[in-house]
Design brief:
32% of the residues lie in helices and 17% in strands. It is an alpha/beta fold.
Amino acid sequence: STGKPKGVMVTHKSWLATLFWTIGKFKFNEHHTHLAIAPVDTAVFLGDLFMALLSGGRVVLAPPNCARDMEALCRLIQHHRIGVANFVPTVIRYLAEENRFAGLTSLRCVFASGEAISGQLAARVRRHTALFHFYGLSEAACVACREHGGREEEPELGEATIHSLHCLAGD
C-alpha cells in the first residue's frame, strides 16, 4: 500500500458477498472463535468482526497494541482458545520465532494479509496450522486467497473469488 487513499468505494452488497464466500469456503460456524486484532478503523477489523458474527461464532477483541507483545498475544489466544486469526506476516514471523505456534494448539486457520509472506515462513507455520494468504478486501470487493502447502516455495497470491468479479466497460 502507498498509504494514500485510493478513492475506492465498496458496496455493502459486495462486501457481504465476500464475507459470506469466506464463511462458506472455510465452513466457519458457531464452534469457531475468531480474534479481532487489527485496528478498529480498518476493513480487516470489520471483516474479522462480521465474519464471526455472521457465522454464529465468537469474536474476541484484542486489547490495543496486543500484536506488539507476543507473550500477551499468545496468552490471549490460549485463554480464549482462538481458532481463527488474521495477522500481517510480521506478526506471524514473531510468533514463529521460538516456535510459539507449537503452543497455540487451538489455532486452526491463520490468514496472512497486508504484506508478502515468504515460502520459508509459510512452511514453518504450516507445521502447526492451516495458513491462507488473503489479499484485496480493503481495495475491492473481491479477494485473492491461497492455501500454503508445506513446501518452502515462494507463495503465489492465489485466485480471485469469482462471485465478486465485475467489469465495468466505458464507452
